[in-house]
Specification:
It contains 7 helices and 2 strands; from the N terminus they run H-H-H-H-E-E-H-H-H. It has 164 residues and is mainly α. Strands 1-2 form a two-stranded antiparallel ribbon. It is elongated, with a radius of gyration of 19 Å. The protein starts with 7 loop residues before the first helix and ends in a 23-residue tail after the last helix.
Length: 164
Amino acid sequence: MIDNMPCWQDVLIELRKIIRATDLQSKRVVKACGLTIPQVMVLRAIKDLGDVTVKRISDDVSLSQATVSTIMNRLEERQLVERVRSNTDRRIVNARLTTTGDEIFQTVPTLLHESFITRFESLGNAEQLHILAALQQVSGMMDAEALDAAPLLDIAAPNRDGES
């Protein structure tokens, strides 16, 4: 190892810390409000966008429409959201937060990616680009550049049910 140069073990340790932080965040959120991160993201999209279609939610949270539909089914079973037909076009079905959904939403802690974004945006443009380039290089070294991933730190790849 060259003086002051990180060795591959140091890099892998830092990657494990990132993975561990996202895992711990997921557990904290479930404990605090009883919802998974993808469920929180769907609730937040509905809260922010108002009466909204599954496609619009899907676009907002960067998850497939099938995954969002599965999440919506679970949220609807818990009476946190409801589906309502549009008044202007009866073919369109919108999601709406229920009073219970809004109450549960108030118990959601700050998500990991929100604090990350704040800190990242406080960096200069050159430093942001340097971090991005380094992470893209690491992703390539791990043969992960072709993997599909949500842009949010807290959303894992969907499982067989379409939900993380």
